């Protein structure tokens, strides 16, 4: 008990020397952030919708055969949704649906998961895609409503801007951008106002990296398209764009090189990233909360986004230095 006066005296000195003289330096930024958050909360939009209840809702997931898409299928199914999974690998999709069915008694989901083949880079135009889209819609619980569209399919690449062939540039853009745009356009009228669109993008949709030109460009384009869509005829429709950092899914080893062949080289940074299951859990929670933007990344990666806006030349120099050691992204002689 004799130490209490000393502790009390120390607290008073701390208050007089630190808290009182310097509190304005902390109060002003806190007030600015608080005001901005209040304005954002007051602004009309999907944030005022009721929380998204996934029970007995139909969820369509592209790129669901592996990685994050597969993990998202389990997360949505666990929450009572009927999942329609699409990708290019029918064998993997069939196994995914069998694995989901095996959890039916555990999670109490009465809905049968179903799958279809879709290659987003080969959908063609609206007329060519209509039959596939009509088939997908017919698989919904009510045969007409897709409550949640998950635009998840994608491919990556490694190669310098000068070495990467135009074939690879177009191939990545077709899958990562044009395919999602077309699928969204075709399904938009089937998504209710209290439904949602989930876009699994990347930090590279905000900050481009060296030797990732096609991938970064496609993700920038994806971000821009859905930003525009938010501002048009249905501002209350939730569109959640996830700017994801590294996720440990083996995605990097499937990246195309400058000539269009898989690199077969895993990105060591991805091995240290989120697990697919953890990422899926975080993302679906944000969707349920009616968020519209989610930067799922470490503080360092978030800082890169801030540097891009406030000190771009510093960031470009830092990324240049990073690129000098990124030899696997360069064309091999």
From TrEMBL:
<keyword id="KW-0560">Oxidoreductase</keyword>
<comment type="similarity">
    <text>Belongs to the short-chain dehydrogenases/reductases (SDR) family.</text>
</comment>
<comment type="function">
    <text>Putative oxidoreductase.</text>
</comment>
<dbReference type="InterPro" id="IPR020904">
    <property type="entry name" value="Sc_DH/Rdtase_CS"/>
</dbReference>
<dbReference type="GO" id="GO:0016020">
    <property type="term" value="C:membrane"/>
</dbReference>
<dbReference type="InterPro" id="IPR036291">
    <property type="entry name" value="NAD(P)-bd_dom_sf"/>
</dbReference>
<dbReference type="InterPro" id="IPR002347">
    <property type="entry name" value="SDR_fam"/>
</dbReference>
<dbReference type="Pfam" id="PF00106">
    <property type="entry name" value="adh_short"/>
</dbReference>
<protein>
    <submittedName>
        <fullName>Dehydrogenase/reductase SDR family protein 7-like</fullName>
    </submittedName>
</protein>
<dbReference type="GO" id="GO:0016491">
    <property type="term" value="F:oxidoreductase activity"/>
</dbReference>
């Amino acid at each position: 008990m004799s130490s209490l006066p000393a502790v009390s005296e120390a607290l008073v000195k701390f208050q007089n020397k630190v808290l009182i003289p310097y509190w304005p330096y902390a109060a002003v930024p806190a007030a600015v952030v608080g005001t901005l958050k209040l304005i954002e909360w007051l602004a009309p939009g999907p944030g005022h919708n009721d929380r998204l209840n996934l029970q007995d809702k139909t969820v369509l997931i592209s790129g669901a055969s592996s990685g994050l898409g597969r993990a998202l299928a389990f997360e949505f199914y666990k929450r009572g949704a009927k999942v329609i999974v699409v990708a290019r690998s029918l064998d993997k999709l069939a196994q995914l649906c069998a694995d989901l069915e095996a959890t039916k008694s555990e999670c109490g989901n009465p809905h049968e998961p179903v799958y279809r083949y879709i290659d987003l880079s080969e959908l063609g135009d609206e007329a060519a895609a209509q039959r596939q889209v009509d088939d997908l819609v017919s698989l919904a619980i009510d045969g007409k409503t897709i409550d949640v569209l998950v635009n998840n399919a994608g491919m990556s690449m490694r190669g310098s801007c000068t070495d990467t062939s135009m074939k690879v540039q177009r191939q990545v853009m077709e899958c990562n951008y044009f395919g999602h745009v077309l699928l969204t356009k075709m399904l938009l009228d089937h998504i209710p106002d209290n439904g949602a669109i989930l876009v699994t993008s990347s930090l590279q949709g905000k900050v481009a990296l060296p030797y990732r030109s096609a991938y970064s460009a496609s993700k920038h384009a994806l971000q821009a398209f859905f930003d525009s869509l938010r501002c048009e005829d249905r501002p209350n429709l939730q569109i959640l764009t996830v700017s994801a950092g590294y996720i440990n899914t083996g995605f990097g080893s499937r990246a195309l090189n400058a000539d269009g062949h898989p690199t077969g080289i895993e990105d060591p940074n991805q091995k240290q990233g989120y697990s697919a299951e953890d990422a899926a859990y975080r993302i679906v929670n944000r969707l349920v909360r009616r968020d519209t933007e989610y930067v799922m990344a470490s503080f360092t990666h978030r800082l890169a986004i801030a540097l891009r806006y406030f000190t771009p030349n510093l960031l470009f120099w830092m990324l240049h230095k990073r690129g000098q050691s990124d030899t696997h992204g360069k064309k091999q002689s």
